[in-house]
Design goal:
This protein has four helices and ten strands. It has about 200 residues and is α+β, with helices and mostly antiparallel strands. It folds into two domains: about 140 residues, Sandwich (Immunoglobulin-like); about 40 residues. The strands form two sheets. An eight-stranded antiparallel β-sheet has the order 1-2-4-7-6-5-9-10, with no helix packed on it. It has a two-stranded antiparallel sheet with strand order 3-8. Strand 1 and strand 2 form a beta hairpin. Helix 1 runs antiparallel to helix 4. The protein is elongated and about 95 Å long. The two termini are about 35 Å apart. About 20% of the residues are buried.
Length: about 200
């Protein structure tokens, strides 16, 4: 019976271990400079195809205090794509290039996540491989940038993504079975206890 309870406890622990994104995530790049230090964070870890959480912490290089009145933009460049034939396009090449880059530009909002000191955005990464991230910070006419490469892994399989929900029905069945076993054994325990008490009195 102790072994059965251990198994049930393990199942309950596994079902409760849902993936939780940390506030901000792991550090992607820390770029000290003047006048700010720019730190970009991302989650999940590792980054995967799909929606990701990218956050930026901007601090004053001299004082270390967070800068809370800046404009922060994230620009992502996907892995190298095959060259497209634009000779038949009715739009100028530079317009097509600008439209392509605009799809991967994201304005990061201060306090959009649970941490009020971070500028956050939630872009969708569409393919695995090495992406380029450029963080641009503007404040009072001053612009500073930080760049880094991001390793993006393939998406998780549907089974791994939804396994906690799939594990709940078997867990419920196991708990019900243990409960029924205890209920059935309880009368036997009572009879044995009563017999033992009567024997001691005699």
């Amino acid at each position: 019976m102790r072994r059965a309870w251990r198994v049930v406890g393990l199942l309950a622990w596994l079902a409760g271990s849902l993936p939780v994104w940390a506030d901000g995530g792991s550090v992607l790049v820390r770029s000290p400079g003047e006048p700010w230090q720019i730190t970009a964070l991302g989650s999940p870890d590792p980054l995967r195809v799909g929606e990701v959480d990218l956050s930026v912490l901007v601090t004053d290089t001299e004082t270390g205090r967070p800068v809370l009145d800046a404009e922060v933009e994230l620009r992502l460049r996907p892995p190298a794509e095959p060259t497209r034939d634009l000779s038949n396009s009715t739009h100028p090449t530079h317009q097509i290039q600008e439209a392509h880059e605009a799809r991967h530009a994201h304005h990061a909002q201060l306090g959009a996540g649970t941490n009020g000191l971070l500028y956050s955005a939630w872009p969708r990464l569409t393919s695995p491989g090495v992406w380029e991230l450029e963080v641009t910070v503007e404040r009072r006419g001053i612009t500073q940038r930080a760049t880094t490469s991001l390793e993006v892994a393939p998406p998780r399989s549907a089974l791994l993504l939804h396994w906690p929900a799939l594990a709940l029905p078997p867990l419920g069945i196991a708990l019900f079975a243990v409960h029924q076993t205890l209920v059935r054994r309880r009368p036997g325990w009572a009879l044995r206890l009563g017999a033992a008490s009567a024997h001691e009195r005699n």
